[in-house]
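Listing S7. Sequence submitted for prediction.
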Amino acid sequence: MGKASKKIICILHGYLLEGSGSNLWTRSIIRSLCQQGQTVHLLCQENHPEIYDFIAAVYHYYPDGIIKTKLQRAVPYPGRCIMHKPYLGETLPVYVWDKYDEFADVQPMIQLPDEKIEKYLDANILVLRQIVKEQHVKILHANHAVLMSVVAQRVAEEFSLPYAIMPHGSAIEYAVKKDKRFFDYALEACSAADLIFVIGKEIRQRVHNLFPQIKDLDSKMIDLNLGVDTSLFRPVDRQDRTGHIYELCTSLTDTERGKKPEQSSALREALFNTISKPELLGLIKTNSKYNGKLTDFNVEHRLTGLNWQQAQVILFVGRLIASKGIHSIIAALPYIFEKFPKACLIIVGHGPLREPLEALLWALENGSRSLVENIVDWGTELEGSGNQPLVEIRHYFDRLQVAGTLEKYFDKARRYIREDRVIFTGYLTHRELRYLFPACDVAIFPSVVAEAGPLVFLEALASGCFPIGTYFAGMAASIDSIAGAVPDRILEMMKLSPETENTVSELVKNVTNAFSIGNTYKTVLHELAVEKYDWQKISLRLSKELFDLTK
Protein backbone atom coordinates (compact mmCIF):
# COMPACT_ATOMS: atom_id res chain seq x y z
CA MET A 1 0.00 0.00 0.00
CA GLY A 2 3.03 2.29 0.03
CA LYS A 3 4.08 4.98 2.42
CA ALA A 4 0.54 6.14 3.30
CA SER A 5 -0.30 2.74 4.78
CA LYS A 6 2.09 3.42 7.70
CA LYS A 7 -0.13 6.26 8.86
CA ILE A 8 -3.09 4.48 10.35
CA ILE A 9 -6.32 6.41 10.93
CA CYS A 10 -8.86 5.48 13.57
CA ILE A 11 -12.34 6.94 13.04
CA LEU A 12 -14.57 7.22 16.09
CA HIS A 13 -18.28 6.99 15.33
CA GLY A 14 -20.61 6.16 18.20
CA TYR A 15 -23.49 4.80 16.19
CA LEU A 16 -24.34 2.75 13.10
CA LEU A 17 -23.33 2.85 9.45
CA GLU A 18 -26.83 2.49 8.04
CA GLY A 19 -29.00 5.53 7.48
CA SER A 20 -28.24 9.13 6.66
CA GLY A 21 -26.29 12.04 8.13
CA SER A 22 -23.07 11.20 9.94
CA ASN A 23 -23.69 7.46 9.45
CA LEU A 24 -23.69 7.92 5.68
CA TRP A 25 -20.68 10.22 5.87
CA THR A 26 -18.72 7.63 7.84
CA ARG A 27 -19.38 4.66 5.57
CA SER A 28 -18.78 6.74 2.43
CA ILE A 29 -15.49 8.17 3.65
CA ILE A 30 -14.22 4.79 4.85
CA ARG A 31 -15.10 3.04 1.60
CA SER A 32 -13.32 5.78 -0.34
CA LEU A 33 -10.23 5.58 1.89
CA CYS A 34 -10.13 1.80 1.40
CA GLN A 35 -10.37 2.33 -2.36
CA GLN A 36 -7.27 4.51 -2.05
CA GLY A 37 -5.34 1.79 -0.21
CA GLN A 38 -5.67 3.05 3.35
CA THR A 39 -6.11 0.92 6.45
CA VAL A 40 -8.82 2.40 8.65
CA HIS A 41 -9.77 1.33 12.15
CA LEU A 42 -13.37 2.11 13.04
CA LEU A 43 -14.87 2.34 16.51
CA CYS A 44 -18.67 2.06 16.24
CA GLN A 45 -21.82 0.10 17.13
CA GLU A 46 -22.85 -1.25 13.70
CA ASN A 47 -24.94 -4.43 14.04
CA HIS A 48 -24.56 -5.74 10.50
CA PRO A 49 -20.98 -5.08 9.37
CA GLU A 50 -21.11 -7.98 6.92
CA ILE A 51 -23.19 -5.93 4.48
CA TYR A 52 -20.39 -3.37 4.03
CA ASP A 53 -17.84 -4.72 1.60
CA PHE A 54 -15.00 -2.56 2.90
CA ILE A 55 -15.04 -4.12 6.40
CA ALA A 56 -12.43 -6.88 6.54
CA ALA A 57 -12.58 -7.75 10.24
CA VAL A 58 -14.82 -7.13 13.24
CA TYR A 59 -13.89 -7.44 16.92
CA HIS A 60 -16.29 -7.28 19.86
CA TYR A 61 -14.88 -6.17 23.22
CA TYR A 62 -16.43 -7.34 26.49
CA PRO A 63 -16.09 -5.97 30.05
CA ASP A 64 -14.20 -9.05 31.24
CA GLY A 65 -11.42 -8.37 28.74
CA ILE A 66 -12.47 -11.01 26.22
CA ILE A 67 -12.27 -10.02 22.55
CA LYS A 68 -14.28 -12.07 20.07
CA THR A 69 -13.60 -12.10 16.34
CA LYS A 70 -16.94 -11.78 14.54
CA LEU A 71 -15.74 -11.41 10.95
CA GLN A 72 -12.58 -12.10 8.96
CA ARG A 73 -12.58 -11.84 5.17
CA ALA A 74 -10.90 -10.38 2.13
CA VAL A 75 -12.27 -7.13 0.71
CA PRO A 76 -12.35 -5.96 -2.94
CA TYR A 77 -10.21 -2.88 -2.27
CA PRO A 78 -6.48 -2.26 -1.92
CA GLY A 79 -7.15 -1.00 1.61
CA ARG A 80 -9.43 -2.32 4.37
CA CYS A 81 -11.45 -1.32 7.40
CA ILE A 82 -11.16 -3.08 10.74
CA MET A 83 -14.16 -2.48 12.98
CA HIS A 84 -14.07 -2.50 16.79
CA LYS A 85 -17.30 -2.67 18.78
CA PRO A 86 -17.19 -1.91 22.51
CA TYR A 87 -19.78 -3.52 24.77
CA LEU A 88 -21.89 -0.70 26.22
CA GLY A 89 -24.54 -2.58 28.17
CA GLU A 90 -28.17 -1.66 27.67
CA THR A 91 -27.80 2.13 27.51
CA LEU A 92 -27.06 4.04 24.31
CA PRO A 93 -26.86 7.84 24.59
CA VAL A 94 -28.32 9.50 21.48
CA TYR A 95 -29.18 13.02 20.34
CA VAL A 96 -32.77 12.29 19.30
CA TRP A 97 -34.57 9.12 20.31
CA ASP A 98 -34.85 6.35 17.74
CA LYS A 99 -35.07 2.59 17.80
CA TYR A 100 -31.74 0.71 17.97
CA ASP A 101 -31.34 -3.05 17.94
CA GLU A 102 -29.46 -4.52 20.90
CA PHE A 103 -30.11 -1.55 23.19
CA ALA A 104 -33.04 -1.74 25.58
CA ASP A 105 -32.32 1.70 27.04
CA VAL A 106 -31.96 4.24 24.23
CA GLN A 107 -32.08 7.73 25.72
CA PRO A 108 -31.37 11.30 24.65
CA MET A 109 -28.04 11.93 26.33
CA ILE A 110 -29.24 15.12 28.00
CA GLN A 111 -31.60 12.93 30.08
CA LEU A 112 -28.82 10.68 31.40
CA PRO A 113 -27.13 11.15 34.79
CA ASP A 114 -23.42 11.89 34.92
CA GLU A 115 -22.46 8.37 35.99
CA LYS A 116 -24.05 6.80 32.90
CA ILE A 117 -22.32 9.28 30.64
CA GLU A 118 -18.95 8.57 32.19
CA LYS A 119 -19.60 4.82 32.02
CA TYR A 120 -20.25 5.17 28.30
CA LEU A 121 -17.07 7.22 27.82
CA ASP A 122 -14.99 4.73 29.83
CA ALA A 123 -16.23 1.76 27.76
CA ASN A 124 -15.13 3.44 24.55
CA ILE A 125 -11.87 4.79 25.99
CA LEU A 126 -10.85 1.32 27.19
CA VAL A 127 -11.23 -0.11 23.68
CA LEU A 128 -9.65 2.85 21.90
CA ARG A 129 -6.65 2.69 24.21
CA GLN A 130 -6.15 -0.95 23.23
CA ILE A 131 -6.52 -0.20 19.50
CA VAL A 132 -3.90 2.56 19.68
CA LYS A 133 -1.46 0.31 21.51
CA GLU A 134 -1.84 -2.73 19.27
CA GLN A 135 -2.58 -1.28 15.83
CA HIS A 136 -0.03 1.55 15.68
CA VAL A 137 -2.67 4.19 15.12
CA LYS A 138 -1.14 7.58 14.34
CA ILE A 139 -4.18 9.84 14.09
CA LEU A 140 -7.71 9.96 15.52
CA HIS A 141 -10.79 11.41 13.88
CA ALA A 142 -13.97 11.81 15.95
CA ASN A 143 -17.44 12.42 14.57
CA HIS A 144 -19.68 14.89 16.44
CA ALA A 145 -18.91 17.52 19.03
CA VAL A 146 -19.88 14.97 21.72
CA LEU A 147 -19.31 12.29 22.90
CA MET A 148 -16.71 10.60 20.67
CA SER A 149 -14.76 13.86 20.72
CA VAL A 150 -14.23 13.38 24.46
CA VAL A 151 -13.06 9.79 23.91
CA ALA A 152 -10.57 11.01 21.30
CA GLN A 153 -9.39 13.85 23.51
CA ARG A 154 -8.65 11.68 26.55
CA VAL A 155 -6.87 8.92 24.61
CA ALA A 156 -4.95 11.38 22.41
CA GLU A 157 -3.67 13.15 25.50
CA GLU A 158 -2.53 9.86 27.02
CA PHE A 159 -0.61 8.76 23.90
CA SER A 160 0.42 12.19 22.59
CA LEU A 161 -1.54 11.71 19.38
CA PRO A 162 -3.04 14.40 17.16
CA TYR A 163 -6.80 14.28 16.67
CA ALA A 164 -9.52 15.95 14.65
CA ILE A 165 -13.22 16.49 15.28
CA MET A 166 -16.01 16.81 12.74
CA PRO A 167 -19.06 18.45 14.35
CA HIS A 168 -22.47 17.60 12.89
CA GLY A 169 -25.62 19.58 13.47
CA SER A 170 -27.53 17.06 15.58
CA ALA A 171 -25.03 16.96 18.44
CA ILE A 172 -24.77 20.75 18.49
CA GLU A 173 -28.51 21.38 18.45
CA TYR A 174 -29.74 18.55 20.68
CA ALA A 175 -26.93 18.18 23.22
CA VAL A 176 -24.31 20.96 23.28
CA LYS A 177 -26.84 23.80 23.18
CA LYS A 178 -29.29 22.16 25.57
CA ASP A 179 -27.10 20.96 28.44
CA LYS A 180 -24.09 22.68 30.01
CA ARG A 181 -22.43 19.33 30.69
CA PHE A 182 -22.19 18.65 26.98
CA PHE A 183 -21.24 22.21 26.19
CA ASP A 184 -18.30 21.81 28.59
CA TYR A 185 -17.36 18.44 27.10
CA ALA A 186 -17.41 19.90 23.57
CA LEU A 187 -15.53 23.06 24.55
CA GLU A 188 -12.72 21.09 26.16
CA ALA A 189 -12.47 18.59 23.29
CA CYS A 190 -12.55 21.26 20.57
CA SER A 191 -10.02 23.41 22.45
CA ALA A 192 -7.54 20.54 22.54
CA ALA A 193 -8.21 19.27 19.01
CA ASP A 194 -5.61 19.82 16.32
CA LEU A 195 -8.23 20.21 13.58
CA ILE A 196 -11.97 20.82 13.37
CA PHE A 197 -13.50 19.83 10.05
CA VAL A 198 -16.58 21.88 9.19
CA ILE A 199 -19.18 21.22 6.51
CA GLY A 200 -19.17 24.69 5.02
CA LYS A 201 -20.17 28.09 6.36
CA GLU A 202 -23.17 26.90 8.37
CA ILE A 203 -21.27 24.63 10.76
CA ARG A 204 -18.29 27.01 10.82
CA GLN A 205 -20.58 29.77 12.06
CA ARG A 206 -22.23 27.52 14.64
CA VAL A 207 -18.83 26.53 16.06
CA HIS A 208 -17.80 30.20 16.09
CA ASN A 209 -20.96 31.19 17.93
CA LEU A 210 -20.59 28.42 20.47
CA PHE A 211 -16.88 28.65 21.25
CA PRO A 212 -15.53 32.17 20.66
CA GLN A 213 -13.17 31.61 23.60
CA ILE A 214 -11.15 28.91 21.80
CA LYS A 215 -7.71 30.25 20.93
CA ASP A 216 -6.86 30.27 17.19
CA LEU A 217 -10.23 28.73 16.37
CA ASP A 218 -10.20 29.95 12.77
CA SER A 219 -6.85 28.35 12.04
CA LYS A 220 -8.12 25.02 13.41
CA MET A 221 -11.19 24.87 11.20
CA ILE A 222 -10.91 23.25 7.77
CA ASP A 223 -13.79 23.25 5.28
CA LEU A 224 -14.67 19.77 4.07
CA ASN A 225 -17.59 19.35 1.70
CA LEU A 226 -20.09 16.57 1.98
CA GLY A 227 -19.88 14.11 -0.87
CA VAL A 228 -21.77 11.73 -3.10
CA ASP A 229 -20.84 8.51 -4.88
CA THR A 230 -21.11 9.73 -8.46
CA SER A 231 -20.45 6.22 -9.79
CA LEU A 232 -23.54 5.00 -7.93
CA PHE A 233 -25.89 7.92 -8.62
CA ARG A 234 -25.99 8.60 -12.34
CA PRO A 235 -28.66 9.94 -14.73
CA VAL A 236 -30.63 7.57 -16.96
CA ASP A 237 -32.69 8.21 -20.07
CA ARG A 238 -36.45 8.27 -19.65
CA GLN A 239 -36.88 5.03 -21.60
CA ASP A 240 -34.54 3.29 -19.14
CA ARG A 241 -36.45 4.29 -16.02
CA THR A 242 -38.67 1.22 -15.98
CA GLY A 243 -35.62 -1.02 -16.06
CA HIS A 244 -34.13 0.89 -13.16
CA ILE A 245 -37.27 0.34 -11.10
CA TYR A 246 -37.18 -3.39 -11.82
CA GLU A 247 -33.55 -3.38 -10.64
CA LEU A 248 -34.73 -1.67 -7.46
CA CYS A 249 -37.38 -4.33 -6.93
CA THR A 250 -34.87 -7.11 -7.55
CA SER A 251 -32.56 -5.63 -4.92
CA LEU A 252 -35.37 -5.99 -2.38
CA THR A 253 -35.66 -9.76 -2.86
CA ASP A 254 -35.58 -11.61 0.46
CA THR A 255 -35.29 -8.42 2.52
CA GLU A 256 -37.22 -8.01 5.76
CA ARG A 257 -40.31 -5.84 5.55
CA GLY A 258 -42.00 -3.26 7.74
CA LYS A 259 -45.46 -1.82 7.17
CA LYS A 260 -48.20 -4.02 5.71
CA PRO A 261 -50.74 -2.58 3.26
CA GLU A 262 -53.60 -3.64 5.51
CA GLN A 263 -52.28 -1.33 8.22
CA SER A 264 -52.68 1.66 5.92
CA SER A 265 -56.07 0.36 4.78
CA ALA A 266 -57.24 -0.05 8.37
CA LEU A 267 -56.26 3.54 9.13
CA ARG A 268 -58.07 4.91 6.10
CA GLU A 269 -61.20 2.85 6.70
CA ALA A 270 -61.49 4.04 10.31
CA LEU A 271 -61.19 7.76 9.53
CA PHE A 272 -64.18 10.10 9.47
CA ASN A 273 -64.58 13.84 9.16
CA THR A 274 -65.37 14.58 12.81
CA ILE A 275 -62.85 12.23 14.40
CA SER A 276 -61.52 13.70 17.64
CA LYS A 277 -57.85 14.18 18.47
CA PRO A 278 -57.79 11.35 21.07
CA GLU A 279 -59.51 9.03 18.59
CA LEU A 280 -57.02 9.89 15.86
CA LEU A 281 -54.07 9.46 18.20
CA GLY A 282 -55.39 6.04 19.15
CA LEU A 283 -55.82 5.11 15.51
CA ILE A 284 -52.27 6.24 14.74
CA LYS A 285 -50.88 4.21 17.61
CA THR A 286 -52.79 1.08 16.59
CA ASN A 287 -51.63 1.24 12.98
CA SER A 288 -47.99 2.17 13.54
CA LYS A 289 -46.89 -1.09 15.14
CA TYR A 290 -44.22 -2.14 12.66
CA ASN A 291 -40.49 -1.70 12.15
CA GLY A 292 -40.22 1.65 10.36
CA LYS A 293 -36.59 1.04 9.41
CA LEU A 294 -37.71 -1.56 6.89
CA THR A 295 -39.27 -1.31 3.44
CA ASP A 296 -43.04 -1.66 3.06
CA PHE A 297 -44.40 -5.07 2.11
CA ASN A 298 -46.10 -4.00 -1.12
CA VAL A 299 -43.58 -1.49 -2.47
CA GLU A 300 -42.73 -3.50 -5.59
CA HIS A 301 -46.40 -3.71 -6.61
CA ARG A 302 -46.92 0.00 -6.09
CA LEU A 303 -43.77 1.13 -7.91
CA THR A 304 -44.15 -1.15 -10.92
CA GLY A 305 -47.73 0.07 -11.27
CA LEU A 306 -46.47 3.46 -12.47
CA ASN A 307 -45.79 4.26 -16.11
CA TRP A 308 -42.23 5.43 -15.55
CA GLN A 309 -41.67 6.58 -19.11
CA GLN A 310 -44.59 9.00 -18.94
CA ALA A 311 -45.04 9.84 -15.24
CA GLN A 312 -43.69 13.07 -13.79
CA VAL A 313 -42.32 11.92 -10.48
CA ILE A 314 -41.73 14.01 -7.35
CA LEU A 315 -39.46 12.40 -4.76
CA PHE A 316 -39.00 13.07 -1.05
CA VAL A 317 -36.33 11.18 0.90
CA GLY A 318 -35.94 11.81 4.61
CA ARG A 319 -37.26 11.22 8.09
CA LEU A 320 -41.03 11.63 8.28
CA ILE A 321 -41.23 14.37 10.87
CA ALA A 322 -42.66 17.88 10.69
CA SER A 323 -39.23 19.52 10.82
CA LYS A 324 -38.37 17.93 7.44
CA GLY A 325 -41.33 19.74 5.85
CA ILE A 326 -42.88 16.77 4.04
CA HIS A 327 -46.39 18.01 4.92
CA SER A 328 -45.81 21.10 2.75
CA ILE A 329 -45.31 18.93 -0.32
CA ILE A 330 -48.62 17.19 0.31
CA ALA A 331 -50.40 20.53 0.71
CA ALA A 332 -49.06 21.60 -2.71
CA LEU A 333 -50.30 18.51 -4.54
CA PRO A 334 -53.84 19.58 -5.56
CA TYR A 335 -52.59 22.35 -7.86
CA ILE A 336 -49.61 20.31 -9.11
CA PHE A 337 -51.73 17.24 -9.86
CA GLU A 338 -54.35 19.36 -11.60
CA LYS A 339 -51.79 20.82 -14.00
CA PHE A 340 -49.87 17.56 -14.51
CA PRO A 341 -52.33 14.63 -14.65
CA LYS A 342 -49.50 12.08 -14.77
CA ALA A 343 -47.61 13.51 -11.79
CA CYS A 344 -47.15 11.49 -8.63
CA LEU A 345 -45.28 11.71 -5.32
CA ILE A 346 -43.01 9.05 -3.84
CA ILE A 347 -42.23 9.37 -0.13
CA VAL A 348 -39.18 7.45 1.11
CA GLY A 349 -38.43 7.22 4.81
CA HIS A 350 -39.86 6.42 8.19
CA GLY A 351 -40.96 8.45 11.17
CA PRO A 352 -43.87 9.29 13.48
CA LEU A 353 -45.54 11.64 10.99
CA ARG A 354 -46.28 8.87 8.50
CA GLU A 355 -49.72 7.93 9.81
CA PRO A 356 -50.79 11.59 10.26
CA LEU A 357 -49.72 12.18 6.64
CA GLU A 358 -51.78 9.20 5.49
CA ALA A 359 -54.74 10.63 7.39
CA LEU A 360 -54.17 14.06 5.81
CA LEU A 361 -54.14 12.55 2.33
CA TRP A 362 -57.34 10.61 3.02
CA ALA A 363 -59.04 13.78 4.25
CA LEU A 364 -57.97 15.75 1.17
CA GLU A 365 -59.08 12.98 -1.15
CA ASN A 366 -62.45 12.57 0.55
CA GLY A 367 -63.36 16.23 0.90
CA SER A 368 -63.10 16.13 4.70
CA ARG A 369 -62.17 19.75 5.18
CA SER A 370 -62.72 19.71 8.94
CA LEU A 371 -60.30 16.82 9.38
CA VAL A 372 -57.70 18.47 7.13
CA GLU A 373 -57.82 21.66 9.18
CA ASN A 374 -57.75 19.73 12.45
CA ILE A 375 -54.67 17.75 11.40
CA VAL A 376 -52.99 21.02 10.46
CA ASP A 377 -53.88 22.53 13.84
CA TRP A 378 -52.98 19.44 15.90
CA GLY A 379 -49.67 19.31 14.03
CA THR A 380 -46.72 17.94 15.96
CA GLU A 381 -48.94 16.47 18.68
CA LEU A 382 -49.79 13.76 16.18
CA GLU A 383 -46.14 12.80 15.86
CA GLY A 384 -45.59 13.00 19.61
CA SER A 385 -43.13 15.89 19.58
CA GLY A 386 -44.91 18.94 20.95
CA ASN A 387 -47.99 20.98 20.17
CA GLN A 388 -47.07 23.14 17.19
CA PRO A 389 -49.42 23.39 14.18
CA LEU A 390 -48.20 22.66 10.67
CA VAL A 391 -47.65 26.36 10.17
CA GLU A 392 -46.65 26.21 6.51
CA ILE A 393 -50.03 24.74 5.59
CA ARG A 394 -51.87 27.07 7.98
CA HIS A 395 -50.26 30.11 6.33
CA TYR A 396 -51.11 28.75 2.89
CA PHE A 397 -54.76 28.19 3.82
CA ASP A 398 -54.95 31.70 5.29
CA ARG A 399 -53.61 33.13 2.05
CA LEU A 400 -56.14 31.16 -0.02
CA GLN A 401 -58.93 32.28 2.32
CA VAL A 402 -58.03 35.95 1.81
CA ALA A 403 -57.95 35.39 -1.95
CA GLY A 404 -61.31 33.65 -1.83
CA THR A 405 -59.92 30.42 -3.32
CA LEU A 406 -59.78 28.08 -0.32
CA GLU A 407 -63.01 26.34 -1.28
CA LYS A 408 -61.62 25.84 -4.79
CA TYR A 409 -58.47 24.31 -3.28
CA PHE A 410 -60.46 21.68 -1.39
CA ASP A 411 -62.46 20.91 -4.49
CA LYS A 412 -59.24 20.34 -6.46
CA ALA A 413 -57.89 18.14 -3.66
CA ARG A 414 -61.03 15.97 -3.77
CA ARG A 415 -60.76 15.65 -7.56
CA TYR A 416 -57.02 15.05 -7.96
CA ILE A 417 -55.61 13.46 -4.79
CA ARG A 418 -55.76 9.68 -5.11
CA GLU A 419 -54.11 6.91 -3.16
CA ASP A 420 -52.29 5.60 -6.25
CA ARG A 421 -50.69 9.01 -6.90
CA VAL A 422 -48.88 9.14 -3.54
CA ILE A 423 -46.66 6.16 -2.76
CA PHE A 424 -45.05 5.54 0.63
CA THR A 425 -42.17 3.08 0.33
CA GLY A 426 -40.96 2.87 3.90
CA TYR A 427 -37.21 2.78 4.43
CA LEU A 428 -34.87 2.34 1.46
CA THR A 429 -31.09 2.08 1.51
CA HIS A 430 -28.59 3.28 -1.08
CA ARG A 431 -28.88 -0.16 -2.64
CA GLU A 432 -32.38 0.89 -3.78
CA LEU A 433 -32.04 4.67 -3.92
CA ARG A 434 -29.34 4.43 -6.58
CA TYR A 435 -32.11 3.21 -8.91
CA LEU A 436 -34.91 5.44 -7.65
CA PHE A 437 -33.29 8.90 -7.74
CA PRO A 438 -32.44 8.79 -11.47
CA ALA A 439 -35.97 7.59 -12.31
CA CYS A 440 -37.54 10.70 -10.73
CA ASP A 441 -37.93 14.18 -12.19
CA VAL A 442 -37.88 16.42 -9.11
CA ALA A 443 -36.60 15.85 -5.57
CA ILE A 444 -37.86 18.18 -2.83
CA PHE A 445 -36.28 18.80 0.58
CA PRO A 446 -38.37 21.52 2.28
CA SER A 447 -36.72 21.29 5.70
CA VAL A 448 -38.02 23.63 8.39
CA VAL A 449 -34.82 23.47 10.48
CA ALA A 450 -31.36 24.49 9.36
CA GLU A 451 -29.25 21.52 8.23
CA ALA A 452 -25.50 21.58 7.92
CA GLY A 453 -25.42 19.57 4.73
CA PRO A 454 -28.25 17.55 3.25
CA LEU A 455 -26.63 14.58 1.53
CA VAL A 456 -29.86 13.67 -0.27
CA PHE A 457 -29.62 16.96 -2.17
CA LEU A 458 -26.27 15.86 -3.59
CA GLU A 459 -27.64 12.42 -4.47
CA ALA A 460 -30.44 14.07 -6.44
CA LEU A 461 -27.89 16.34 -8.13
CA ALA A 462 -25.66 13.44 -9.17
CA SER A 463 -28.70 11.52 -10.46
CA GLY A 464 -29.84 14.39 -12.67
CA CYS A 465 -33.02 14.64 -10.60
CA PHE A 466 -33.87 18.35 -10.30
CA PRO A 467 -33.33 19.32 -6.61
CA ILE A 468 -35.45 21.85 -4.72
CA GLY A 469 -34.72 22.77 -1.11
CA THR A 470 -35.17 25.38 1.58
CA TYR A 471 -32.69 28.14 0.87
CA PHE A 472 -30.82 28.43 4.14
CA ALA A 473 -27.91 26.83 6.01
CA GLY A 474 -26.21 23.92 4.24
CA MET A 475 -28.94 23.66 1.62
CA ALA A 476 -28.25 27.24 0.52
CA ALA A 477 -24.54 26.46 0.21
CA SER A 478 -25.32 23.42 -1.96
CA ILE A 479 -27.61 25.45 -4.20
CA ASP A 480 -25.12 28.30 -4.44
CA SER A 481 -22.45 25.86 -5.60
CA ILE A 482 -24.53 25.28 -8.75
CA ALA A 483 -24.36 28.98 -9.72
CA GLY A 484 -22.74 29.45 -13.09
CA ALA A 485 -23.45 25.89 -14.21
CA VAL A 486 -27.10 26.69 -14.99
CA PRO A 487 -28.89 29.96 -15.85
CA ASP A 488 -30.00 32.11 -12.92
CA ARG A 489 -33.68 31.47 -13.60
CA ILE A 490 -33.05 27.72 -13.27
CA LEU A 491 -31.12 28.24 -10.05
CA GLU A 492 -34.05 30.20 -8.61
CA MET A 493 -36.35 27.21 -9.22
CA MET A 494 -34.26 25.24 -6.72
CA LYS A 495 -34.87 27.69 -3.88
CA LEU A 496 -37.66 27.64 -1.32
CA SER A 497 -37.87 30.60 1.02
CA PRO A 498 -37.25 29.80 4.70
CA GLU A 499 -40.24 32.03 5.46
CA THR A 500 -43.06 29.62 6.35
CA GLU A 501 -45.66 31.97 4.86
CA ASN A 502 -44.36 31.19 1.36
CA THR A 503 -43.35 27.51 1.48
CA VAL A 504 -46.40 25.82 -0.07
CA SER A 505 -47.10 28.46 -2.72
CA GLU A 506 -43.43 28.40 -3.78
CA LEU A 507 -43.54 24.61 -3.97
CA VAL A 508 -46.45 24.79 -6.39
CA LYS A 509 -44.63 27.34 -8.55
CA ASN A 510 -41.18 25.72 -8.47
CA VAL A 511 -42.34 22.17 -9.12
CA THR A 512 -44.51 23.36 -11.99
CA ASN A 513 -41.54 25.20 -13.51
CA ALA A 514 -39.21 22.25 -12.95
CA PHE A 515 -41.60 19.88 -14.70
CA SER A 516 -41.80 22.32 -17.59
CA ILE A 517 -38.05 22.26 -18.29
CA GLY A 518 -38.00 18.46 -18.21
CA ASN A 519 -34.58 16.80 -18.13
CA THR A 520 -32.71 19.59 -19.90
CA TYR A 521 -30.08 20.00 -17.20
CA LYS A 522 -29.65 16.48 -15.83
CA THR A 523 -26.24 15.91 -17.46
CA VAL A 524 -25.00 19.30 -16.29
CA LEU A 525 -26.09 18.56 -12.72
CA HIS A 526 -24.32 15.19 -12.72
CA GLU A 527 -21.10 16.67 -14.10
CA LEU A 528 -21.20 19.35 -11.41
CA ALA A 529 -21.57 16.66 -8.72
CA VAL A 530 -18.55 14.81 -10.12
CA GLU A 531 -16.48 17.98 -10.17
CA LYS A 532 -17.28 19.23 -6.68
CA TYR A 533 -18.72 16.46 -4.53
CA ASP A 534 -17.33 13.05 -5.44
CA TRP A 535 -16.35 11.16 -2.26
CA GLN A 536 -12.93 10.33 -3.68
CA LYS A 537 -11.99 14.01 -3.69
CA ILE A 538 -13.45 14.55 -0.23
CA SER A 539 -11.61 11.61 1.34
CA LEU A 540 -8.31 12.61 -0.29
CA ARG A 541 -8.63 16.03 1.31
CA LEU A 542 -9.47 14.48 4.67
CA SER A 543 -6.55 12.06 4.66
CA LYS A 544 -4.08 14.74 3.53
CA GLU A 545 -5.09 17.09 6.34
CA LEU A 546 -4.94 14.28 8.91
CA PHE A 547 -1.61 12.91 7.75
CA ASP A 548 -0.09 16.39 7.76
CA LEU A 549 -0.67 16.43 11.51
CA THR A 550 1.72 13.49 11.94
CA LYS A 551 4.67 15.19 10.24
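Caption to Listing S7: primary sequence and predicted C-alpha coordinates for the chain studied. The chain is about 45% helix and 15% strand. The first strand starts at residue 8 and ends at 12.
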